[in-house]
Each structure stands twice: as structure tokens, then as C-alpha cells.
Amino acid sequence: MGAIDIFLGATLISYLIALVYVTVYCLMQVHLLRAYLGREKTPEPAKVSHWPMVTVQLPFYNELYVAERIIDTVCDFDYPKDRMQIQVIDDSNDDTVAIARARIDYWQSKGFDIEHVRRAKRHGFKAGALADAMPNVKGEFIAIFDADFLPAPDFLKSSVPFFADAKTGVVQSRWAHLNEDYSLITRLQALQLNVHFTVEQSGRRAADLFAQFNGTAGIWRKECIRDAGGWKADTLTEDLDLSMRAQLKGWTIRYLEENLAPAELPVEMNAFKSQQHRWMKGGAENARKLLPSLWRNKELSFSKKIHMTTHLLASSIFLFVFLIGVLSIPTAVAVTHFALPGWIFTGFLIASLAVGSVYYVANVRSSWRSLSQWKAFARFVVLFPLFLCLSMGLSLHNTVAVLQGFRGKKSPFVRTPKFAVGDGNKVSTNNYRSKKIEWTTIGEGLLGLTFLAAVIWGFWVDNTFFSLFHAMLAIGYLSIFVITMRHTFAGPEAFAKGDDEDGSNMLMVPRKKELVKAEAA
């Protein structure tokens, strides 16, 4: 056996291993889908005779465009004023400080218990800010909102009653999307997030598995935070870390799919990528940190350990998607070299069917119920293949983040810039736009051209088994590359939304919960 045979054989085996990993992951998602479809309706919470003290925390870091809006929104809560403390935890170093100070002064004059919490140094980033604020928390419960959220006035009253069970440590609400229809990028983000906030979150609770606090739009029991060891800044996803530690201590997370908390999706590619990097790297960091203690836990069943392992390793799916893409070219050569029948790979189509069914239910049946059945189906048929292309195109960027997380390489917490385009702001003139080109962006462009060449080569030598896959990879990588470059250097035309170039009509601020539900349905 020659060197070429050994190389192509090893490539083929590696490709099949990666395919098996992705297939198993997709089948685990189907298990959650089954639990989701069989879930019971959320029972009505217990009646509250006396509203407990709640502290609302608003962690800020340079939130120039949304700081005033979230402060006003929280002060508009339909909750007894004397039972609510508001902490604006502000690590900003720009005009956000003055904007927040002005609104805090205004609401203090109206009798609200609201304070401006400032630190001399931004150590520990968001987790450090939340930990530093803990000694001054007055509430039995702590609600946390990122600056781009717009919770409904009855958010606290609709969530707090679910703490009647003394072992409930967290009540998490579902994210809705203020600007889902702003652009193709936001539609594809919403398509993915809808899976997490329906099938994954509700499915895990229905199957009695570990759920997750999503960093915002949720309420913690203060005692639970302390018992679980408090906020830690050793990972970039402090929310996932504390969620898992709390559940390992016996606390439960109650997920309310019907309670909607609208928020802004990133409209600019670099902002979206920074969010993806933080989530993917943080997931890997938490897997590295928590998996040993998980498997040492003698009280958890084997099935729970398997599902939690899958949960913690979720970000690694991009590593294997990247490997499948890169290895597919020499694998195509191996198929011809060894005269293999193409049907040996068809069994793995089950992965595509599995993930397709999960996304169909999460979106068509759960999130797009305001659309007609045929319109929702047509929308899915268009968006889902594009979503697969986008995911493939992001796999290099996200793989780098995952490997950094597993290696333990430390990096700063890079916040996702908020643009608030619906308030008349223009993305093209936004102070927080990134104008730096990362090496991964260049890599995405080169990979896109490589897979385009692979498509041409396949037709040239009459080896077209992988051509559709290579075409999707080419579309994904080249789209990510082109959009990233355009959003980095282009002017207003790169962000135009039809006739509404500043997006001023895209983010309608909902003031009633019924309107929020109607928009997100």
C-alpha cells in the first residue's frame, strides 16, 4: 500500500468519524424534539398574596444607543415600587455614563429605588460586575436584563409566582426578536434561536434534564446564586456556568416558553461574529470546566449525564462541520481512487432529516403561528437551506473559538454591540462598528474559492457526488466573507432595509404583553 493509499484511507476514516459525531448530535436533538412534542401545558402559578422584594440588575458596558430605553422600560414595570430595587451596573467608559446618570436622576426624583453602580476597574467583565453588586442586593430575587431587551410591563408579575416551589432557583423567559425581519442575517439568526428557545429549553425541562439560564430575561433566587458558588469570570459564558453548578447542587430551572422577552438581533456581521465567538468559546470553556465534576456526580442518572455532556459540547459541532467540509475534497478523491459506491454515505442523510425536523417544528409550528400554514412552509423551504450554508460558512470562525476554549486560552469578554436601529440610529454611523479584518475572514474567502473550484473539478472529472455539498460550502464561506468585508468598509447602502434605510420602522417598542406575543408568534 502506497503513501497515497494510506493518506486517502486515513482521510476517509476521519471523514466518517466526523459524520458519525454530527449524526449522533442530530439524533440527540430529535430526542429533545420528542420530549418537546409530548410536553404538558405549563400549570397556572400559585396566587401571590404578598409580592417579594426583587432587585433588577442592568449590566452595561458602552450601551450608548439603548441605555435610556432599558432604564425607562424597567421603571415602567407593573410591580410595587416599594418592592423593587434597580441596579444599573455600569462599566462604561463613553457617553453611556452620562446618559444613564441622567435617567437614574430622573427616576430617583420619581421615588424609585434606583442606583448607579460604578467600578474603578472592569475586572471579570459581566460576571465580575454582577458579583461586585451582590453585597448591595436587597431583593430575595434578582432579575437580569441585557441593555437591548424590552421586557413587557408585567414581566415580574408573570414570572415571580413560579418561585412558589422552594427548589426553583431560576425562572427563564423566552427571547423574542424585535427585528427578525430586518434582513436575511436577522431572519437566519432567529431561525436558529427559535430552536433553542422551544425544542431545546422546553424539551429539556419536559424530559427532566438540565435547562439553562440565558444570561438575560430571567430571574434568580438570590439564595441559589450563593449556594451554587456565585458568579465566576473564568469562562465567557458565566450564565451557562452558574446554571449548571446550580442544578448540580439540586436547584431547578423553570423555563416559561409563553413568557416573551423581546430583544434586538445583531444586524451587522462583525457584531454577530463577536457574539458567536463568545458563545462558542464559552461553551467549550464550560465543557472543560464542568464535565469532570458532572461525571463524578453519583446522584445523576447515566442518561442525564449523556444529555448534559451533549449540551456542554454543543459548540463543538462546528469543529466537526468544519472537518467534514475540509475533508470532503480528499474524500471525493478517495471515493474514485478506491472505486467506492456513493451509497455508503447516504445513511448519514438521516442527520439532515433529523435537524430539518427540529427546525421545522421550532419555527413553522411554534414560532411562526401567525403566518398561514403555506406561507410558513414556503418561508422555511427558502430559509433552512440558507441557514445550513450560513452555518457551514461560520464553521472556521467558530472552530477557532471552540479550540481556544478547550485549550484554556484566555481572552476578554467582547460584548455584542447594540445598534437600536429602530430608534432612528444608523448602523453605518454607529460608534461600535468594528473596522478590523480578522485572519479568519481571509480564510473564509479562500475556503469559499477552494470549494467553488471543487465544484468545477467535480463536473470536469465527472465526480459530482459531493458537488451539492461543495456548492453549499462555497456559498456559505463566500457569503460570510463578502458580507463581513462589506459591513466593515461600506457606507449606509450596506445596511439599507428597502425604502427604510435607517431601519427606523423595524423595531417597534411594544408596551403591552399581548402586542409582544403577537409580534413574536
Descriptive tags:
521 residues, alpha/beta, seven-stranded mixed beta sheet, 17 helices, disordered C terminus
Your description of this structure?
The protein has about 525 residues and is of the alpha/beta class. Helices cover about 55% and strands about 10% of the residues. Strands 3-2-1-4-6-5-7 form a 7-stranded mixed sheet, sandwiched between helices. β2, α3 and β3 form a beta-alpha-beta unit. α1 runs parallel beside α12 and α2 runs parallel beside α3. It starts with a helix and ends with a helix. The C terminus is likely disordered.
Count of DSSP-assigned helices: 17
Task: Report the C-alpha radius of gyration, rounded.
Answer: 24 Å
**pLDDT average, as an integer?**
89
Helix content: 40-55%
Head-to-tail CA distance between termini: 60 Å
- The count of β-strands is 7
| Beta-strand fraction estimate | 5-15%
If strands are numbered along the chain, what order do they take across the biggest sheet? 3-2-1-4-6-5-7
Shape: globular
The SS-based structural class is alpha/beta
Taking the sheet with the most strands, its summary is: 7 strands, mixed
Element order, helices and strands? Answer: HEHEHEHEHEHEHHEHHHHHHHHH
Point out poorly predicted stretches.
Answer: 498-521
